[in-house]
Amino acid sequence: SAVQTQNTYMVINALVDYLSMMTVHSAVSLSKRTGVIQVLAATVSLADGGSLGPSHLNVYQILLKMLRLSIDVEFSESTEAQAKEDVQRLQDAVIDAVGVFANVLPNYVKEDIMKIVCGKLPEAGQQEGSQEMTTAQSAISRFTSAAAFNTYRALLVQCMFKLVSVYTPSKLTSSLSPEFVQPLLKHCLVAEPDVRVDVQVILHRLIDRHSNVQRLPVKTTWTSLDDLDLKKVKTSKEDVLFIKRHGSTLYWQLYEHTRLASNTPLNLVAIYRTLALLSLELDAENTMVEIMRMMFTLQDYAMEKDSSKSFQFIVSLHAFVALFMHFISHLSGVAAAIDHVEKVLEERRQHAPFLLPDNCLTPATAPPSSGKLPTSASLFFSRDFISQALQPSMGRSADYLAEPYDSKMEDEAGTIQVSSDVHSIVNMTGGTLDPSEHEKITYKSLKAALETPSSPLASRRAPTSFDEVATSCQAESLVYQNRLTELLEHLAQPQSVLSLTPSVEVDGQASLPPWQRLAFTDLLVL
After folding, report:
1. N or C end of the chain: which has fewer CB within 10 A?
2. CA 180 to CA 112: how far, in whole Å?
């Protein structure tokens, strides 16, 4: 308290420099490092937002480096039990300091810090022969063990949670910036269910601008959105354009996350709330249709006969689809869609109550581990009926529901296959499009095009020497330079001013008359 508020940054910088020195000298005890971090956090809490100095990004770099070094100490074979307890206290101090610093920083700085933290998240790769996403061997090799890798990733996720807990989202273009959301989304598919839940909670904080997440119950007994007291505002054009451009990656990661067999009810509820918040914040036709396509594809996936899928997983997936369809039908406000969903839910209450989210996705309930799945069509949601129900209000966009959700997939060789969907363009021109027709560009198709002798691409890549390539490039460069010189010379010449009326001479100088309206006949042809 003896330090004046405007000079607090000098004390903070001195502590940061001292902490930076500790990251170089490994002989400094863990308890001493923890003490310095705790003093630093206490000092920041006394500072104003403007008295932190320009080194706040450097502070986070040092804190994250300290966190990384603690992992090596924790999983070292020579580390004793007491030292591991000191490591835990150090890690807790770092995470608390991350939240304390973020609490006094403006929103745009928090976004920069989130980019730094997400940039530190280790990459995740796909385990061969499995749909489960697990840590890549190349990433694990930088750590002493896979456990060290997973612990470091979990600590960084906790740092992100601290950041978003004091972050106030305003625009999706900022809160869902691809620079830090895309690295975060990759961890929607890691093997640890609890980490996946944390990632979804972080997404809730980034998306939920009106505190709606706690108003989304895991039940289907409510009959109107008014019962939930949800806050809705008109979606800005900027957000709609942003989600059209970057939403496909977000939707696809959520879709793949839902299909993971290791999902617990907590995972599915967290995904449901993420999708519901996206639907609320982006109350637009394309968002609703895209997510409903996802739901119908998930329902079809759950109904496929596959011995690798447990009965518990299938039941949970059907309950998840029912939970979201109940919400999205009421959000659409289409009476026919609401009636269809309510009819399906009532059929389930009478003949298959275990398919309801109320009975298997709440904390007090759990899906059955064995049983027989009913096959009656009245117990499942009809894609065709919902599409027809939405036709009057959404027009051609509702036809898009007939297409399965396969906008992005991986083939057997591991190459990403992208479907270029021109459905919306054809709709704008008034044409028709066969839903089965897609333009798919893959590595194999590009390779085949290059290897075809009759292809123009093949002739362009004919074997040539380096001298021939250099001569060709030099000739093209000379042509470009000559054209550029001609253009600059032309612009340098004085340009004569054309006028529709003769100029008037005043005091020996020509001046143009004022603009006058010109009348053209109806049959005038220009």
Report:
1. C
2. 9
**For the purposes of burial, counting CB atoms within 10 Å of the CB of 233, is it exposed (0-12), middle (13-18) or buried (19 or more)?**
exposed
Tokens linked to 95: 């995470």
Which residues are CB-contacts of 28 (< 8 A; sequence separation ≥ 6)?
Answer: 22
Q: Residue 469 in 3-state DSSP?
A: helix
Length of the chain, please? 526
Helical spans, DSSP H, in 192-236:
193-207
**Residue 442 in contact with residue 415, Cβ under 8 Å?**
yes
- Tens of pLDDT, residue by residue over 281-302, are 887 788 888 899 999 999 999 9
Structure tokens that stand for 412 in this block: 């057997």
Encoded tokens for 471: 């001569």
Token duo for residue 121: 């998240």
Q: How many CB atoms lie within 10 A of CB 63?
A: 24
User: What residues contact 300, with CB distance under 8 A and at least 6 apart?
Assistant: 404
For the cut 90, the answer to whether the pLDDT of residue 445 exceeds it is no
What is the sign, positive or negative, of the torsion defined by CA atoms of 22, 26, 32, 34?
positive
Cβ atoms of 274 and 320 within 8 Å: the answer is no
Query: What percent of the chain is predicted at pLDDT more than 90?
Result: 24
Contact 285, 394 (CB under 8 A): yes
User: Which residue type sits at 1?
Assistant: S
Give the C-alpha separation, 96 to 159, whole Å: 8
Instruction: Tell me which residue has tokens 């697990």.
Output: 134
Rounded Cα–Cα distance for residues 305 and 303 (Å): 6
| Bridge-based pairing state of the strands 133-135 and 408-410 | unpaired
**Which amino acid would we find at residue 184?**
L
Secondary structure (DSSP) of 369-397:
SS------GGGS--HHHHHHHHHHHHTHH
pTM of the model: 0.72
d(CA 112, CA 309): 41
Considering only the C-alpha atoms of the chain, give the largest distance between any 2 of them, rounded to a whole number of Å: 103
- Phi, psi for 220 (deg, rounded to 5): -120, 25
What is the rounded (10 degree) CA torsion for 221, 224, 228, 231?
Answer: 150
How confident is the model over 130-167, as pLDDT tens digits?
Answer: 343 444 444 555 677 788 888 898 899 899 999 999 99
Question: How high is the mean pLDDT of the chain?
Answer: 78
Q: Closest Cα to residue 206, out of 175, 177, 183, 179?
A: 175
E strand or H helix at 322, and its extent?
helix 311-332
